[in-house]
Amino acid sequence: MQVNKKELKPSELELTIQISPAEYQPYLEKAANRLSQSSKIEGFRPGKAPYDLVKQRFGEMAIYQEALDNIVSHFFYLAVTQEKLNTVAQPKIDLEKLAPGNPIIFKAVVALMPSVKLKDYKSVKVARKEVKVAETEVAKVLEDLKKMQAKEVLAERPAQQGDRVEVDFEVSLDKVVIEGGSGKKYPLIIGDKTMIPGFEEELVGLTKDQEKTFQLKFPEEYQNKMVAGKNCDFKVKLLSVYDRQLPPATDDWAKTLGAKDLNGLTADIKKNLADEQKFHEEQRVETELLNKIVEQAEFSEIPEVLVESEAHRMVHEFSDSITQQGLDFNNYLANIKKAEKDLVEDFKPKAMDRVKTSLVIKEIADAEKIEASPAEIKAETEKILTQVAGNQEAADNITSEGYQHYLQTILRNKQVIEMLKKECVK
Predict the structure, then answer these.
(1) CA–CA separation, 367 vs 111, rounded Å?
(2) Phi, psi (rounded to 5 degrees) for 116
(3) Can you tell me the mean pLDDT for 396-423?
(4) Which alpha helices (DSSP H) does 104-257 contain, by range?
């Protein structure tokens, strides 16, 4: 095998790889066996026909075409190993020459892993903020728990704050009802702020079967970009009013929630809020710490393919979050008048930040010789497998080579972050 290298740019190489007939002959023989298995050749068992007979039956070029993918992938890997290249993403392959009895020549354009020069990352310092749970936060959770157990009684009076009501409504822009802008017998609690600002306040004082029209401005950051920041016309009809009677905060009520008494429930709430705050504070600390280290680091040219790939991943994550909210992603794109490729471009700056962070973590892991052990990977795999018990397809995916490599990277990254927090967080 002959390999010639040509630098296209600092982050990209073109390899011209030439393979002699003797080197690729074993792949032709395997390809011929596969072809003879797929079509019966008189007098021979499947896969046992001589090479020359298969060539006569299917044609020599058919054998070459059957073998080509395996030849290219094998010798590309050998070339990368031989030249000691640290490549990223899939190569771009162009076949230069394929003729029976002659060397096979193909070109592979590869992106190279960027180099990272770290400063003294252990000198970076980040302060962890003290977690404090305010009494008002505890009181709000208690009130929300009471609301969840409220008794509702149909009321023959005007609607007021705290009532549950049912309404018919329509929302129009330029006299056209917007997408998702209508509802029948729509339930809501006045004061819970589940609708856009001002809507619930307009219902206060309405009585059964009373109609009302009014105008409200949608928030600038509203997810439906067609109406974001615009004044729209609202038409509502109040159908029913329910007075919500909340249980008193007593020891007996606390016991219905599994607590020993009201003091025990209050203590549990405070602990849960503190745990949640600690979790968010740890996330903030990790983000600030990594950002500071990335800002100090120096990078060689980062291949566009890395940023592009990360941007696509971010779009898929965003699409999943939109779907989890009960919205259709294609409708969302139509509303903001963008195609998916436009979102990819929008995400590229943040994708670049994520790529740099990943490169820094890998560089620190190499410098500190941090890696997940086989025992740690096995333990994490078994933990995940228990969560998908009975789903063989998911189990196969989790135990696949690709996912195991991904898991190894995740565990390594966690270990790097924990090491940095011990060294750098006050």
Answers:
(1) 23
(2) -125, 130
(3) 90
(4) 135-148, 199-203, 251-256
- Evaluate whether 380 touches 411 at the Cβ level (below 8 Å): yes
Domain boundary among 245, 270, 304: 245
Tell me which residue of 385, 377, 375 sits closest to 404, measured CA to CA: 377
Buried (b) or exposed (e) across 406-416, using 16+ Cβ within 10 A? ebbbebbbebb
Structural domains counted in the chain: 3
Integer Cα distance of 107 and 265 in angstroms: 69
Tokens of 94: 């162009």
Closest alpha carbon to 246 in 144, 330, 323, 324: 144
**Top-confidence residue, 270 or 306:** 270
Query: What three-state secondary structure class fits 333?
Result: helix
Global confidence as pTM:
0.69
Residue at 94: amino acid letter: D
pLDDT tens string 30-46: 888 887 776 666 656 66
CB 186 within 8 A of CB 214: no
Query: Residue 128 in contact with residue 281, Cβ under 8 Å?
Result: yes
Phi and psi angles of residue 169, each rounded to the nearest 5 degrees, phi first? -150, 155
Please tell me whether residues 217 and 328 are part of one structural domain: no
Range of the domain at 188: 150-245
